[in-house]
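Practice problem: predict the structure.
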Amino acid sequence: MTGRSERPGKFPRKNAQNSSGADSNDAERGQAEQSPEAPAADAQVTEANTETIIVRATPAQTPQPAALKLQEPPQPFPGQPDLSSEDNLEDPSEPLLVIPELTTMFPSGAPFLARFLPQVPATVLGLNASFCNLHDFLRHLHDVGWYGYLHAFIGDQAAFVLVYEGRTVAAASISSTGEQALGELLHLYEQGAPLSAYALPPHLAHILSGVGSRAWKFNLTEDFTGLHARPRGAIFYSRGEIVATMPATLPYEGAFPAPLRPQTLILPRSLAGWAHGQYGLTLRGKDALNAITSVHQNFRSQYGVLGLAFLRALSEKLSPAEYAMRSDVALHDLEPLLQEFLRTGVAKEQMAGQS
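Answer:
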């Protein structure tokens, strides 16, 4: 016996005596089998030599993994020894902190939002207007609470829209941002531009929701959530912690803080004029808001709490677009409701200057 146990993850030292001893052991073991009266001393030598021969994989038998950029801690091959330390083995209970480096999807993108969108697999690729109406597709994303971004392009024109909880919260194109860029996405799609959708983790979608047309002075606080852009790369922060980096840059240092609750973008008046109009209540509509009338009970049973809240907002001179932004309601849910109000005579459209 050697009197010393082997530590896990270590290779045995090559010993010429061990190798030669193995050959002699085989010979002596064969003699012992032929002669049952073999001396006890020979058996002890054979047993000692056998115990000191420890079989371990050699470096040539166990290929080492290539040095790759991984987004999560690399996992060892089954049976692979840990050669990082012979005497100080790491505690497996302590997690290894690895900050993923994201690859930009559009490295030559001019809009800020496009520049910092990460490369992820497509959920929907090449959606066409002849196959699906964009409003119906946005309604589906809202119903499932989807997180990700949309991209449509035709020729040298392109538009990018960020979706958070199924709501469009940020948009950018070559010449505009916000609501105008959202309108450009719709326009490009109707002109035949293929549209693709890429899913994002919710925390990345939240961080990117603050990317607009200008960067602010960076001030890292313990709860900062947003993007820190620098000439040498971007850093993604969530509640003061670094969650990812990206080689995308800006020529200057700045920050895009994410709002606590991203607001929904509304289509511009040129594409959704009804959403920006003013509507008043008829006498029947006013009765629908009066809890002591039978009209109120019938209205509540038919349209529910959402219908009552929307009708009350119209009575307070809020446009559907303003109400959608304040109440965080999807605009496409209000359009059929408004059409129903107008059809049943509880609301009417007001011209400019009417009270």
